[in-house]
Amino acid sequence: MAAYDCLEIIARLHRFAKGATVSELHLFAYLGCLLSLYKGRTTTDWSYDFAGTRHGGPYSRAIQDALDAMQNNGWTRISDDFISLSDEGQQQCRELSELSQNADRTQFLAAACSTALTMPIGRVRGALASEVDLKTTSVAENARPLLDATSCSLLHDQFAVLSEAVGVSVHDLMVPAVVWITHLANAVFEERDATSDGT
Amino acid sequence: MYVTKIAANHGETGLDALRTLLERVHQIYAHIDPADYKSIVIFRLLNDKTSPLDISKAKVVNDMTGMAVDLTPKSTIQILDGGRLALWRNDTPDTSQLSHSAIVYSFTNTAEQIYTAGEACEIPRFVHGISSVFAVPGFTSLRDALEHYRTSVATYCGCKLLEKAWSRPADRIFFGRAPESKLRDSLTQYLSNVLRGAEVRAEQNMDEDHPVDIKVTWVFARRLALIEIKWLGWSIDDGTPPRVLKKWTDKRARDGARQLAEYLEWNKTRAPNHITRGWLVIYDARRKKLQPGMNAITKSNGRAYRQRDIAFTIKYDEKRDDFEPPVRFFMEPVCSP
């Protein structure tokens, strides 16, 4: 699963953003996982875990291992820290996308990556870092697991509010993804502007 | 928000068209700078069977690389299937009318909008100094990012945060009171948006007399950049009478270099497992023949220091392998004609 997620994220970001950096793979995989929870899946359904780092970003051992394996297999290329897919990597991505176990995940990864169509990736990263679970771990001494029972319960409350805010009934998760990340980003950057103003 | 409006107006079809449109806008802006144009309209039809514009008058291209040659100050682009684009030169359609059969993006005089079903939705500008939210460069190199900031933001004050640093943004002769936090926040926000794969944070414990720091962390590469900011020039209280608060000369920059070197030594024990580089960033607002209260400056006096680099008595970038060559942003005043 993690291998497919890496391939899909790299392929999507490469269309308009030169590819993905290592930290962005973890970031968008995590956002995809959150969107799956929004759609009623469980963390078990996602099949791998995440930890929060004190730098405010998510980390997944499964994603990192998958990326390392893909690099060893020659499925990826790296130029100036941007990861793109080799011809073989693109072929692997196409084949893996047709597996039933991955078909359901595509919608979540696609929606996660679509947030980067509407705003700079740095803004997506800043927005997600303000999400309650990640924000809590960023002030902790050590990395700690994300999406425990308490965090998931808080997320579900947020998602209930989000569903109301979205206000339209569409299956496409781009809408709630963009609405949520935009809301988080606006709060972060308004707070920064206010601090700069001294207000 | 245009995403929700498009979903409400056109459902999944509209969102598919929006995704394709936005991907192509990003790709197009990798080849052109929208600020070079008076008007760009880019659209994707909701239904390929409609033809709201006469495509026989368009030039169809398969490849974006030579696009800048084909475009005129007012251009319209249709996103076709198979990577092709149809270009209309010297033509701006009725975007509101067009948006009944297409998802339409418009860039006009630095404002961006998405049109759907006759309604225009403003696209917020997240990154000052960059003409479009879809043209934000993505840098993995801090040096490249700083150079881009220098030319697109610092030199001519292309940032609302940076405007707040000046006593009078209209002439940009003097800084206002305590510009440090504004300079720091401008650079922090910019780097946060353009640096890919890095966390950017401003340090919190500062006042006029203590260093301003930004820390950039490439988590997965175990690299750190510590940015020390110094400003040069005068800061004034523009009251009655106007009062000079600070006058910082080249010595301030030299002190900053020393402080940064000391900090790098201290940081060796704090982050021993990281490759750390120190960056001294200088916002240079030095002018010649300044007087408090002046609200006009000649080109000769305003630009006297434009090409005058700081003379560092100790070149830490040559003595240390963790000290980058200092970066200077000369900040152009608005000079009398």
Label this structure with key terms.
heterodimer, A: mainly alpha, three-stranded antiparallel β-sheet, 5 strands, B: 337 residues, alpha+beta, seven-stranded mixed β-sheet, 25% strand
Q: Can you give me a brief rundown of this structure?
A:
Chain A is mostly helical. Chain A has helices at 2-17, 22-38, 43-46, 61-73, 87-97, 100-118, 121-129, 132-138, 149-166, 174-197, and strands spanning 51-52, 58-59, 76-79, 82-85, 144-145.
Secondary structure elements and their pairing?
The complex is a heterodimer of chains A (199) and B (337).
Chain A: H1 2-17, H2 22-38, H3 43-46, E1 51-52, E2 58-59, H4 61-73, E3 76-79, E4 82-85, H5 87-97, H6 100-118, H7 121-129, H8 132-138, E5 144-145, H9 149-166, H10 174-197
Antiparallel strand pairs in A: 1-2, 1-5, 3-4
Helix pairs in contact in A: 1-4, 1-5, 1-6, 2-6, 6-10, 7-10, 9-10
Chain B: H1 2-29, E1 39-45, E2 59-61, H2 67-70, E3 74-79, E4 85-89, H3 95-98, E5 102-108, E6 111-116, E7 119-122, H4 142-154, H5 160-163, H6 180-194, E8 199-202, E9 212-218, E10 223-237, E11 243-248, H7 250-270, E12 275-284, H8 299-302, H9 316-319, E13 327-330
Parallel strand pairs in B: 1-3, 10-12, 12-13
Antiparallel strand pairs in B: 1-5, 2-4, 3-4, 5-6, 6-7, 8-9, 9-10, 10-11
Helix pairs in contact in B: 4-6
Structure description:
The complex is a heterodimer of chains A (199) and B (337). Chain A is 69% helix and 7% strand. In chain A, the strands form two sheets. Chain A has a three-stranded antiparallel beta sheet with strand order 2-1-5. In chain A, strands 3-4 form a two-stranded antiparallel sheet. The relative contact order of chain A is 0.17. The mean pLDDT of chain A is 89. In chain A, helix 1 (2-17) packs parallel to helix 6 (100-118). Chain A has 199 residues and is mainly alpha-helical. With 337 residues, chain B is an alpha+beta fold. Chain B has helices at 2-29, 67-70, 95-98, 142-154, 160-163, 180-194, 250-270, 299-302, 316-319, and strands at 39-45, 59-61, 74-79, 85-89, 102-108, 111-116, 119-122, 199-202, 212-218, 223-237, 243-248, 275-284, 327-330. In chain B, the strands form two sheets. In chain B, strands 2-4-3-1-5-6-7 form a seven-stranded mixed beta sheet. In chain B, strands 8, 9, 10, 11, 12 and 13 form a six-stranded mixed beta sheet that branches. In chain B, helix 4 (142-154) crosses helix 6 (180-194). The longest helix of chain B is centred in the first third of the chain and has 28 residues, at 2-29. The radius of gyration of chain B is 24 Å and the shape is globular. The A-B interface holds A 15-18, 21-24, 53, 55-57, 59, 80-82, 114, 117-123, 125-126, 129, 166-168, 170-172, 174-175, 178-179, 182, 185, 189, 192-193, 195-198 and B 1, 3-4, 7-8, 11-12, 15, 18-19, 22-23, 26-27, 126-127, 133, 136, 138, 140-141, 161, 164, 181-182, 185, 188-189, 191-200, 217-221.
